[in-house]
Structure formats: C-alpha cells, structure tokens
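Input record (one chain):
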Amino acid sequence: MRQKGPLKQFEEFDAWSFSRLGESICSEDVKFDFPRLASDENILSSHVAYWEVSGRINAKSESVIRFKGRFTAELSCVVCGSGVQNVIDFDRHLILMTSETQADSYDEDTLDEDTDVVACPGAINLRDWLEDEILLACPMFPKHDACAELAGRSWREEGADMQDTDDYQDDTADGQTQEVQRPFANLGDLLKGGKK
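The corresponding structure, as predicted from the sequence alone:
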C-alpha cells in the first residue's frame, strides 16, 4: 500500500479489511508523528528509524495485524536519572476479536510472548496503535550497567544489615514472618490485557 496523501484515513482505519486483503504499509509510505513518544517525561529523546504494519489471516482464519520496527531512545535511568541510550526492535502480532468478551475468553496458553489478542469492534486509529506498540517496547526500568550493579549491591548489603539487627530478630521471635514489601508485585497484573 503506497500512500502519500492525507493521513485522515488512518484515524478510522479498517484493520479487518487490511488483514483480510494481506495489505502492508511502512514508514516509507506514510510519515507519522508520535506525540506521546515525544512528550513522555521518561523518554529524553527518541527517533523512530523504521516501522511496518502488515495484515494477514492465520491458520485459524483469524485476522492478525503485525507491528514491527526499530527506534532509538534515550531513557531516564531509574537509579541516577541521567540518560540511557537504547536501540529497540519491536515485532508484535495482534489477533483481532470483535468484542472484549471474545478477547478475554481467548486461550492465552496458545499464544507466544510476541502475540496478544485485542478487541477491535470497529475502526481504529492506526497511528495510536503503532505508537502503543513502540511505547510498550521500551524497557520498564531502564538502567546503566554500572547503576544496575550498584543498585544490586545496595540491595544485597541492605538485606544483610537487616538480618544482623536486633529489631529483625525481635520481629521474628514470636513466630510471625515479617512481610517483605514488593512495590512492583502487582505490576504485571495491572499491565495484563492493557489493549482491550
């Protein structure tokens, strides 16, 4: 699909027909701006080098949209706050369902890590979907190698110090185990099924 004209048609994009016809479109055909990528406070700078969106019907007669590409991003290190340079490739396959009920009931055990099921009851904004996949490809906790090593050492030392304190012994003396706080323990559940 070669498209040099207005971008309005991609705001109400027919993903079903696109996949049924086996169409494809790439960054050489259409120039998209990515405002959320540019405005994200954790992304200091970014450049999308290449992207491609293609459609197909799989062996189960399901409509599938594939997003793939490469971008560079300078991300804020979660330890020191300065920039971490990343070159990121993404390649995602989205199986389309007509409703959230169908998407929720899909057997996720049959999916690989690069495939997801999404509700697509009608037209979509193609640029927004592509931008979603770019943002999701960013590392969740970017760190410099040196910062990651430093953080790991600090956690190990802090854990050793806790075990050596009298307070630690007193808290466990009555047989109750002190609960360890894990601030990101539920993060996976919150992100699960985010594109429904």
